[in-house]
Amino acid sequence: MGRRRRQYKGPGRNAPCPCGSGRKFKSCCESKGEGPATGPERVVRPELRAHFKRAAHAGCYDDTWFTEVEKRDATVAEDYAHFALVRGMSREEEHRVRDALELVTTEVLSALPPEVLVGSCNLVTNVMVRFVEALGVWAFGVHGSVRFVFPRHPHLDPSYFWVVDEQDFQGAFTGHAWLVAPPFVVDCTARLQKWQGPQATLLPDRVVAHRSEVEVLHPQPDLFAAPRVARFAGPPHPALFEFWQWMPAIRVRLPEAHVTYQPSGIVLPQERLGDDGWALSFGNRTPAQFFEQVILPAWAERGRSQ
Q1: Model confidence over 208-257: pLDDT tens digits?
Q2: Worst-scoring range by mean pLDDT, 5-19, 92-106, 113-127?
Q3: Which residues, other chains included, contact 246 with Cβ-Cβ below 8 Å and sequence gap of 6+?
Q4: Which of 47, 141, 221, 282 could serve as 125's disulfide partner, Cβ 3.0–4.6 Å?
Q5: In angstroms, what CA-CA distances link 288 with 139, 159, 166, 270?
Q6: Please, which residues bridge with residue 216 across strands?
């Protein structure tokens, strides 16, 4: 359902700080010791940057030229995500991205019953990437580990979903998946994980956090792997530390919970919106039918009302 890739080599010291303050990284989180460790800034190959600028549309990793390059060098998916993160946008586009995310998350959560969503974070993330791309929003999925802490409820222990863990069955998806649509992080399935207690009742049905609302963290040791498999898994691969320099762990503070996301890779959906291979349906509608019959008319109506 997706192509997982490791990510980038870290913001340059003169690059905008990932916290969204608008200041340079060296004058913001680096100097406070709160940001990711510095490292060489990823240089997007000129021919790819030219392609992204020429294509100028979300989802251009499906273009024939891109897919041909990807056959020779799978890391071009990293260039796509990097371009989505740093391409910049106007205030009007940022408002449009927020509106698109609000619409898509609302319609998806309304259409899919909770029992369908449980354990389907990867599927839901992939289809949501396709939905927002079809509305012109640059986005990609992220796969990794997540920690939930409930500071106002000390009787509840922290809860974890580790990317390195025992599988419930052969081929089972471990960890968690969420959506990045710069400048927002979106998680619609945290509440629908396989909880063993009342924690789900303390979580909202969705998390939509602007980059200015998240805390950028150093790598979190307790999120590397589940304790029961950690000694067999060994330490994180060095490539992951390069990845975390550019795509660091973040913490989102919600009213009843603090949620820490630690990425391990990028997820780009293989199936296009009109393909038949989706393992997720909306009642009797395919994802393409749901987009055309529900999301697109609602988006048009929203545009007329503004």
Answers
A1: 999 999 999 999 989 989 988 888 888 888 888 888 888 899 999 999 99
A2: 5-19
A3: 7, 8, 9, 10, 11, 36, 39, 42, 82
A4: 141
A5: 18, 35, 34, 15
A6: 250
Share of the chain above pLDDT 90, in %: 42
Task: Give the pLDDT confidence score for residue 65 in this predicted structure.
Answer: 82
| Alpha-carbon separation of residue 50 from 44, 57, 115, 243 (angstroms) | 10, 13, 44, 24
Strand pairing of 258-269 and 140-149? Answer: antiparallel
Task: Name the token pair of 174.
Answer: 């471990």
Q: What is the pTM of this model?
A: 0.82
**Could you tell me the two tokens for 279?**
């393992």
Nearest-CA neighbor of 225 among 173, 165, 287, 141? Answer: 165
- Whether the pLDDT of residue 3 is over 60: the answer is no
User: 9 pLDDT exceeds 60?
Assistant: no
Bridge partner list, 161: 146
Q: What Rg value do the Cα atoms of the chain yield, rounded? A: 19
Which amino acid would we find at residue 26? K
- Give the amino acid at 94: E
Four-point Cα dihedral 176, 179, 185, 189, nearest 10:
-50
